[in-house]
């Protein structure tokens, strides 16, 4: 235990796991890992929705083509439209699940920081002097 004016080397130790001011390591920290997964899910969902809406769904009707060929083209575009709708729904689901996961991580981190123990301010050096009773003051009369 150090006095108020001395610098304590134990205050430089890494914070506890429950502290909200810790370094993030995605390999060992589940919050960081799931945060990255939720970000990837939202990004992939946005890409899927973009692809689903930007792919052309309609065909140009050509009256000079024979009926069987036009029917085959119409069936192809009908099936393509069905699959693009599935891609859009999958993108929406990924965005929704990624958002839910990210929200759950944010709420758990918020409550973890709320329930964290208060900081022990006696181990924090305020200045280089041994008398720290004038913290923030410009005059130092003893």
Explain what this protein looks like in three dimensions.
The chain has 142 residues and is mostly helical. It has a domain at 27-119. The chain has two helices and no strands. α1 packs antiparallel against α2 (67-114). It is rod-shaped and about 90 Å long. Residues 1-13 have a biased composition (Polar residues). InterPro entries: TMEM74-like (IPR029695). Keywords: Membrane, Transmembrane, Transmembrane helix. Residues 1-20 are annotated as: Disordered. The chain crosses the membrane at residues 33-54, 86-114.
Task: Write down the overall geometry.
Answer: rod-shaped
Q: Low-confidence spans: pLDDT under 50, at least 5 residues?
A: none
Estimate percent helicity: 40-55%
Radius of gyration, in Å, reads: 30 Å
User: Could you give a short account of the major beta sheet?
Assistant: none
Total DSSP E strands: 0
How many helix segments?
2
Query: What is the SS-derived class?
Result: mainly alpha
Please report the distance between the alpha carbons of the first and last residues: 25 Å
Mean pLDDT: 78
Biased composition (Polar residues): 1-13
Region (Disordered): 1-20
Transmembrane segments: 33-54, 86-114
InterPro entries: TMEM74-like
Helices and strands, with pairings:
Layout: H1 30-54, H2 67-114
Helix pairs in contact: 1-2
Brief description of this entry?
InterPro entries: TMEM74-like. The chain has helices spanning 30-54, 67-114. With 142 residues, it is mostly helical.
